[in-house]
Amino acid sequence: MRKVLFTILLIITLFTQMKADNIFLKEFKTTNGAIPFDRITTNDYEPAIMQAIKEHEAEVLAIANQQEAPTFENTILALEYSGETLNRVLGVFYPMLSANADDSLIAVSTRISPIISAHSNFVSLNEQLWNRVNTVYKNFDESKYSHEDKRLLDKTYKNFVRSGAALEGAAREEYKKLTIQLTELTLKFEQNCLKDKARYEMWLKKEDLAGLPETGVVRPDPAVEAAAAEAAQKGREGEYLITLYFPSYSPFMKYSSRRDLREKLYKMYNTQCTSGEFSNIEVIKQIANTRLAIANLMGFKTFADYQLDNTMAKDVKHVYAMLDQLKKAYSPVERADMKRLEKFASKLEGKPMKIMPWDYSYYSNKEKDANYSIDDELLRPYFELNNVIDGVFGLATKLYGLQFTENYDAQVFYPDVRVFDVTDREGKYVGMLYTDFFPRATKQSGAWMTNFREQYLDKDGKDVRPLVTLTMNFTKPTDSKPSLLSFYEVETFTHEFGHALHSLLSKCKYVSLSGTNVYRDFVELPSQFNENFMTESEFLDSFAKHYITGEKIPQDLVQKVIASSQYGAAYACMRQLGFGYLDLAWYTIDKPFEGDPFKFEAEATKDVNMFPPVEGCLMSPQFGHIFSGGYAAGYYSYKWAEVLDADAFSKFKEEGIFNPKTASEFQELLSKGSTEDPMELYVKFRGREPKIDALLKRDGIKK
After folding, report:
1. CB within 8 Å of 608: residues ≥ 6 apart
2. Strands 201-204, 240-243: parallel, antiparallel or unpaired by DSSP?
3. How confident is the model at residue 561 (pLDDT cuts 50, 70, 90)?
4. Is 538 domain-assigned?
5. Residues 202, 261: contact at Cβ < 8 Å?
């Protein structure tokens, strides 16, 4: 008996100790709730998640099993405010999994992902809870509640339905199995992508660098220096290392005159995850088939039908209509552009040239430079990262009155990370912004915005402000040069910063409706809208200055940037359309896919392919957006949002790009999150539904 009592006491003691020691199991006692990264270790995540799940399940059971009749307050609101600890730990865990994932963190993810999926099912498939939600929904008296309350109820109800709550018996158990399976598959896909990219290396000698600008010339480019530094880090002084990470891959494809090496690097990039230990060939089939099975359970013919039921587009027909309309407008222009580019390349090389995919970046840059006497390397010296930060942040200051003050006391998860406190024009605290600009082996490629914490009002009515993170993969500074960005990198910064503003400017009551928690085909509007300023001299002139001399960017360069902004627009559009058609092809299958992904992809994109298929190359196994990201049956939303952003910016062009009234009206749209229907929000801002004309005009397709 004593032994049993001792064991129980030991367990209680250990549990109490864990709760006392684990930073995630209580509210962060930091200024503005900043994440105490100095006190977080990898070992904290798993026990915190497991304990948080237990706490949340207890809360859910208390809501589901209560004796009181279901009401909006004791069911819908109670659910909305539940899971505080789980939200806190996952709010840090998931961003770290993308931005700073070593093998140990990946291992944690592998273990807990199916557990989290099972927990999600525990909530959404609780029959008593579903009955309460359904009762509140059916008996809701709109006259007693606000519009935002009604939106929360509608979203909660629909989320339950879409998560299988209305399923019964065997169908419900099958749904549980499929969702866990999907979680495991998407995680495997993501990890394969991360690991396979890291293993590809192209080692070069000095003589292999033909075409790449040398450090110290009139147009300095850090690509050669960075390649040398990468090699030196691996103990191979005197050599040069090119990798598949964007700051290394992109400059090489753009400037190298060695066509054989461009072809080699292109094939390395586009054969990622197609074979070997990290192959995703079977994984993508399994993901597509699992999603189809989930859609069928929900009563939909395809996964696309299921997904689009909860979007602005509403259905597959409307998506294809938009894609086809753009294809019809842009395809003739793209064909003419490609013929012109082949003539240019043939003249340059002194022999007939057939442009292949590894040629486009190189020759288009040459042609652009010839026509406009400008390329990115002329611009880089004027886009030093710190100056760009001032400019991009300054855009928010000018439009919305936001101020950004660097916080040197806030803890960070990696030495490169910087933190800024954001305040409004009255000095009131708005939120905190974490910036993470440079690539590393533990970070995924690309650029994104996410939240450690989203905005909402707590139970006491206190406005909890967001903690936002911006993650990029910009060219790193070297010993001799600061980080000098390409025009594209600056544009990427403005894009992701638009997402950040959507979160920072949120003024919503409920977290599930706040900030970027909007329809997927609406979420890109704020980000793509921001990109429009990149062709406005008034914006560029405000921050672009030479990193050595301090000279403002010459106006002739600015005008050339503006004049060249339409160059390659048709190619860029057709490339995006290709991704959109490929996405829909995978998710409009109506029976399990057992075919050849190579043939399938070629067929799906044949009408928009600008080049003949390259044997062994495949996009799908590395297409994270649609297989492990949140864009399955949703990649079209980038073009959908482009129509919106061009149309929205046309109002600024009509009324002044920094017009205070127009900016205030757009800020109102940004502040609403998902508290109103997105089309209604847009019409309220623009005065009408969006038209395609502004996009065609911006791209030079329509005069």
Report:
1. 327, 331, 574, 577, 578, 581
2. antiparallel
3. confident
4. yes
5. yes
Tokens representing residue 664 in the block? 């205030």
Q: Give the three-state DSSP class for 456.
A: strand
One-character DSSP codes across 30-52: SGGG---GGG--HHHHHHHHHHH
Catalytic residue ranges: 496
Position 300 confidence tier, pLDDT thresholds 50, 70, 90? very high
Per DSSP bridges, beta strands 448-453 and 240-243 are unpaired
State which residues form the domain around 235.
200-270
Kindly state whether residues 453 and 558 are assigned to the same domain.
Answer: yes
Task: Indicate whether 153 and 40 sit together in one domain.
Answer: yes
Contacts of 496 (CB under 8 A, 6+ apart): 447, 448, 449, 470, 471, 472, 527
Of the candidates 522, 478, 505, 487, which has an alpha carbon nearest to the alpha carbon of residue 380? 487
What residues contact 520, with CB distance under 8 A and at least 6 apart?
311, 630, 631, 634, 637
pLDDT digits (tens, 9 = 90+) for 153-179: 999 999 999 988 999 899 999 998 999
What is d(CA 652, CA 657) in angstroms, rounded to the nearest whole number?
Answer: 5
**End position of a domain, from candidates 546, 569, 592:** 569
Residues 252 and 156 placed together within one structural domain of the fold: no
pLDDT range class, residue 418, cuts 50, 70, 90: very high
In a domain, 287, yes or no: no
pLDDT at 13 over 50: no
- Sequence-distant (≥ 6) Cβ neighbours of residue 34 within 8 angstroms: 28, 407, 410, 411, 419, 432, 467
Intra-chain end-to-end CA distance of the chain, in Å: 89
Backbone angles phi, psi at 633, to 5 degrees: 60, 30
* CATH number, domain with residue 384: 1.10.1370.40
Q: Are residues 119 and 57 in the same domain?
A: yes
Q: What is the CATH number of the domain that holds 142?
A: 1.20.1050.40
Task: Tell me: do 162 and 207 sit in the same domain.
Answer: no
Angle, helix 103-124 to helix 84-99, in steps of 10 degrees:
140
The answer to whether 421 and 405 have CB atoms below 8 angstroms apart is: yes
143 and 260 in a single domain? The answer is: no
Is 467 within a domain? yes
Name the pLDDT band for 19 (thresholds 50, 70, 90): low
84 plus 231 within the same structural domain: no
Strands 403-406 and 463-464 turn out to be unpaired
Helix (H, G, I), strand (E, B) or coil at 350: coil
Q: How many domains does the chain have?
A: 3
- The 3-state DSSP class for residue 5 equals helix
Same domain as 204, residue 160: no
Q: What is the average pLDDT across 562-588? A: 94
The least confident of 59-68, 174-183, 406-415 is: 174-183
Closest CA to 469 of 24, 28, 35: 35
Model confidence pLDDT, tens digit, residues 305-329:
999 998 988 899 999 999 999 999 9
* Contact by Cβ (8 Å): 442, 436: no
- Residue 578: inside a domain: no
pLDDT confidence tier of residue 654, bands split at 50, 70 and 90: very high
How much is the pTM? 0.81
Q: Which of 223, 250, 270 is the last residue of a domain?
A: 270
Which amino acid is residue 223, in one-letter code? A
